[in-house]
Amino acid sequence: MARVVVDVMLKPEILDPQGQAVANALPRLGVNDVASVRIGRRVEIDFAGDADLERAREIADKLLANPVIEDYEIRVVEAA
Amino acid sequence: MSKIGVVTFPGSLDDGDAARAARISGAEVVRLWHADPDLHGVDAVVLPGGFSYGDYLRCGAIARFAPVMETIADAARGGMPVMGICNGFQILCEAHLLPGALTRNQHLHFRNRDQWLRMENSSTAWTNHFTEGQEILVPVKNGEGCYVADRRTLDELEANGQIVARYIRGNPNGSTRDIAAIRNEAGNVLGIMPHPEHAVEALTGPSLDGLGFFSSVLKHLADAKAAA
């Protein structure tokens, strides 16, 4: 099996209230040196045969990321 | 009698109320099913609120690929009136039938309350019943209703009169430029975050203002038939 990982993140200019809420909670843990937190989504796609980056990119473009608000990065990872 | 189709996706909540609102307004209602691509001869379509496919991935992202949506997208591009309410608005954005996207409410809280809107554009299939500047009261209930788009898109929406309604007396979700509803360029596709279908009867709604959306589309369809 071959795995492709897609990391989906909100674009920098899109407000991430979830990340902000986490950042605002950090001082309660005694952490005071974090400037910002942003939260994204990691998607692991396991191909039955060889890793197909083009296919994975198509999946990411059409479904995994919304290009209006999100960017993604894509890479093949070694099977565990 | 004009036929209004109301789609049910797995996880739709407001399909029953949308059908009821259409019926009260004088339409013949046809219930459409997400897995059936046939529109069964309807003249207009409502995509109701709810949590289609559990809102997994992003709200509306999976509903966009439902068999019925492929047919609706083609019909919408051909001029059929389509109104997406709440989750339906999210689906229309995901399907690229409307620009922009709907994101998590800025304060992260689900908001459920009666909301005043100012109607800003009556040149759509769904809003011709209203006058521009008219204030209406309808329920709003969403967790991901914050409309976003890049500045150029927002400026185009403003310039083309595509912002159909704005929140007034308080923005419930942080939506950019207080946007509550937008239309496509042609005016047949409307996306609205608040719920007109919940404001059609005195017993359960804060007003009867929601009826205007349904009577608008019936008038639009009748005018189109008379002209044909």
Structural class of chain A: alpha+beta
Q: Report the uncertain regions of chain A.
A: none
Describe the biggest sheet of chain A? Answer: 3 strands, antiparallel
Query: CATH homologous superfamily name of chain B?
Result: Class I glutamine amidotransferase (GATase) domain
Using the alpha-carbon principal axes, give the shape of chain B: globular
The helix/strand series of chain B, from N terminus to C terminus, equals EHEEHEHEEEEHEEEH
Largest sheet of chain B, if any? 9 strands, mixed
Commentary on this structure:
The complex is a heterodimer of chains A (80) and B (228). The mean pLDDT of chain A is 93. Chain A has one domain: Mth169, Chain: A (2-Layer Sandwich), CATH 3.30.1280.10. With 80 residues, chain A is of the alpha+beta class. Helices cover 26% and strands 30% of the residues of chain A. In chain A, strands 2-1-3 form a three-stranded antiparallel sheet, with helices on one face. By secondary structure, chain B is an alpha/beta fold. In chain B, the strands form two sheets. A nine-stranded mixed sheet of chain B has the order 2-1-3-4-11-10-9-6-7, sandwiched between helices. Chain B is globular. Chain A binds chain B through residues 13-15, 17-18, 21, 63-64, 66, 68-69, and chain B through 57-58, 61-62, 65, 93-94, 99-101, 103-108, 148-150, 174. Chain A: Pathway: Purine metabolism; IMP biosynthesis via de novo pathway; 5-amino-1-(5-phospho-D-ribosyl)imidazole from N(2)-formyl-N(1)-(5-phospho-D-ribosyl)glycinamide: step 1/2. Chain A: Part of the FGAM synthase complex composed of 1 PurL, 1 PurQ and 2 PurS subunits. Chain A: Its EC number is 6.3.5.3. Chain A: One of its GO terms (biological process) is 'de novo' IMP biosynthetic process.
